[in-house]
Amino acid sequence: MAHKRVVLCLLGTVLAASMLSGCAGKKSDPVTITVWTYYNGDQLDTFNNLAEKFNETVGKKQGITVDSKSLGTVEDLEKNVLAAADGEVGASEVPNIFSAYADTAYTMDQKDMLVDISGYLTDKEKEQYVEGYLKEGDFSDDGSIKIFPVAKSTELLFLNDTDWQKFATDTGAEYDDLKSIEGLVETAEKYYNWTDEQTPDQPNDGKALFGRDAMANYILVGAQELGCDIFEVKDEKMTLNFDKDVIRTLWDNYYVPYIRGYFSASGRFRSDDVKTGNVLGYVGSTSSATFFPTEVTNDSGDTYDISLKVLPSPKFKDGDDYAVQQGAGMVVTKGSDEEIKASVEFLKWFTKPENNIDFSVGSGYLPVTNEANSIDKIKSVESDISSSMEEILTKSVEEINNNNLYYMHAFENGNDARTVLQEAFEDVAQQDRATVEERLTEGQSAQEAEAEFLSDDYFENWYQNVLSELQAYEG
Predict the structure, then answer these.
(1) Who wins on pLDDT, 89 or 183?
(2) What's the mean pLDDT when you consider all of the chain?
(3) Span 284-297, mean pLDDT?
(4) Are strands 281-285 and 210-212 parallel, antiparallel or unpaired?
(5) pLDDT, tens digit (0-9, with 9 covering 90-100), for 361-392
(6) Buried b (16+ CB within 10 A) or exposed e, 332-362
(7) Residue 248's closest CA among 5, 12, 460?
């Protein structure tokens, strides 16, 4: 009997040990996280390659699989995210992670859909990131992080150097002439007159030198350079500072040269205008550099190769040094604790210097950590970088490091207010230039055709109308 009890005790001990051993060795259940982006072309290929690399390494070890999907454009992504959040019929489920600018992230946060990931990062981990990049996702100024920075960009001037050299040889124009906004306007006038002179039998057919991709950036960053924060945000409430003198300076250096034909915007993006020869250069996001054309097909149907020259974004001559900070981050949506932890794990891996630099070189975006935000570090990781991408990233890093960085703080209906501002300059300039061109074809002189739009009364009426529209968005 005693012997039987001993055997049973031993069996019990072995069974208990076996169960404990099994529990200790059991891995967490596998988790799949969905990621939606707006990336296309080289950017999408590079992101997908990195996601696949994560799945095959860290993800495989930790039981995490990243399933990524491009929704096409920023607008398409935003539309699908909001449809998913609102539970619209036919909409997909809300992804675990999606690319978002501050306005979309703010809207989703108001719907109580986002995770404050500050608690998932140690203080040491937070210190690794460029401080301003983390602050962009702190809507309440309380240290929260609602947007995880994964790739940033600023703006540069991208120039068709092949055709610029012909113009420069004939006129003596220099790259330095494009350092200031005032110098850019003067050079654009010179270019318009130079091209007009090529066809003496066809008056007023000069070409535009320049265009802008993101009009709102010119207005908001330009105002900062001139000492004015148009949308001043505190505690998520906006105070409007639509200073008339500042706005007039912005008007005189975009609307006026546009009306006169020195600036232009006809394609969907200004890189499209470079490709058709409608402009020589444009200010646009550093991430747009991968879309800069390698050839031009002009109005006559002639196609020829062109080379790229990258220059700093022009600033107002007597203004402060500011550059735009842009580029969507990633937001993590609410879900199970396992899904949130897995999402943050992937984002931390993605922003490790070696991985983030891989994405930067393949996409034209900039790394987001202090360590990686150096051209020397980038070149040490990517030894096979092309000369054009090296130039782009070198100028980008200089722009980031040598300027105060500006981004538009999130506030309710902030995107709508930004759109009002952008369309007030961009759409009005295009419509009025079209009217000028009609008048020119009817035989009016340039001075006659433009006079209505260049008067003080016209600016005053425009200013009062835009001011009234923007005041509706104040806190």
Answers:
(1) 183
(2) 91
(3) 89
(4) parallel
(5) 887 788 999 999 888 998 898 878 888 888 88
(6) bbebeeebbbbbbbbbbbbbbbebbbbbbbb
(7) 460
Asked if 84 and 334 touch (Cβ cutoff 8 Å), the reply is no
| Close Cβ partners of 336 (under 8 Å, ≥ 6 residues apart) | none
Measured distance CA(473)–CA(475) in Å, rounded: 6
Contacting residues for 462 by C-beta, under 8 A, at least 6 apart? 251, 424, 428
- Angle 420-421-422 from CA coordinates, rounded to 5°: 95
Q: pLDDT, tens digit, for every residue of 173-187?
A: 999 999 999 999 999
15-19, 119-123, 416-420 — which is least confidently predicted? Answer: 15-19
Tokens of 113: 């859909």
For residue 186, the surrounding DSSP H or E stretch is helix 181-197
The answer to whether the beta carbons of residues 276 and 298 sit under 8 Å apart is yes
Q: Do 21 and 80 meet the contact criterion of CB atoms below 8 Å apart?
A: no
Query: Which tokens go with 371?
Result: 């360590």
Tokens 């980008």 found at: 396
Q: Are 270 and 289 contacting, i.e. CB atoms less than 8 angstroms apart?
A: no
| Calpha distance 56→140 (Å, rounded) | 38
| pLDDT class of 235 with cuts at 50, 70, 90 | confident
**For the CA atoms of the chain, what is the radius of gyration?**
27
Reading the block at residue 380, the tokens are 């040490």
Please report where in the chains the tokens 């946060």 appear, as a residue. Answer: 109
Pair 141, 410: CB distance under 8 Å: no
27: left (phi over 0), alpha (psi -120 to 50) or beta: beta
Q: What are the tokens at 423?
A: 């369309």
* Six token digits for residue 192: 């318009």
Show the tokens assigned to 154.
């600023």
Phi-psi sector, 90: left (phi>0), alpha (psi -120 to 50), beta: left
Contact 436, 450 (CB under 8 A): yes
Three-state DSSP class for 356? Answer: helix
Give 24 or 412, the one with higher predicted confidence. Answer: 412
Q: With the CA atoms of 196, 197, 201 and 204 taken in that order, what torsion angle do they form, in degrees rounded to the nearest 10? A: 30
Closest of 153, 209, 211, 208 to residue 177, by C-alpha: 209
Token readout for 27 is: 């891995």
Tokens of 244: 């008339």
Burial class (CB in 10 A: 0-12, 13-18, 19+), 267: middle
Spatial CA neighbour of 343 closest among 331, 360, 358, 359: 331
Q: What is the pLDDT of residues 92-121, one digit of tens each?
A: 999 999 999 988 999 999 999 999 999 999
